[in-house]
Amino acid sequence: MFRWILRIILIVGVGGFLHYTLPQHDIVRITDTYEKRIDFGSNSWFWASADAGAATNATNRDVFFIQTFMTDDSPMIYRNEDTGWSWPPYFKFDTSNLQAEASDLMSKKNEGDPQWAVVTHYGWRNEYFSIYPNAVSIRPANGPDEQIIPWFNIVLLTILAGVFWAVWVRWVRFRTARIDPITQRIGDWFSDIWLKIRRK
């Protein structure tokens, strides 16, 4: 039972880490871009490091935001921060350029042919903890029904699955050849001692 609990915790942890870190794509309608002063609190872990060239030990700073609506008219707000050389490794240094691109793609719902955009981002949106996904890139979409195939995620997850399988097979072979015989001898040794004690 305890072993299964550990496995579930490990799977949930790795799955959550990958879901947060890997790029995701949303088709949205951009309605506004703005800048807001943020005082970092208990959720500071979910904010990127300061932009390249800015102070790194500041307790607050201005952050760009991109206000959008999804194809089902639900709102989605993205932050727009540099990732620099830190984790996750998107090496994003063009925050100001991305904000300009987002502003150029703004459109309103009541327009006859609204402009849709594909926002590539990582992270989660949580209203309760004020957590925002970080936009990495923006491009015009062909329309609200454009199909996006996450090739990068497919290839990376396939490679990770292959690595995990290779490590698992080698671990099973090592355990069968080296560890199991030792545990078997230890078990036999304890059994012999227990039999001798019972005979006395």
Q: What's the gist of this structure?
A:
The protein has helices at residues 2-21, 95-104, 151-199, and strands spanning 24-39, 60-70, 75-80, 117-122, 134-140. It is of the alpha+beta class and 200 residues long. The mean pLDDT is 87.
What does this structure look like?
This protein is of the alpha+beta class and 200 residues long. It folds into 2 domains: 2-148, no CATH class; 150-200. 40% of the residues lie in helices and 23% in strands. It has helices at residues 2-21, 95-104, 151-199; strands at 24-39, 60-70, 75-80, 117-122, 134-140. The chain has a 5-stranded antiparallel beta sheet with strand order 3-2-1-4-5. A hairpin with a 4-residue loop joins strand 2 (60-70) and strand 3 (75-80). It starts with a helix and ends with a helix.
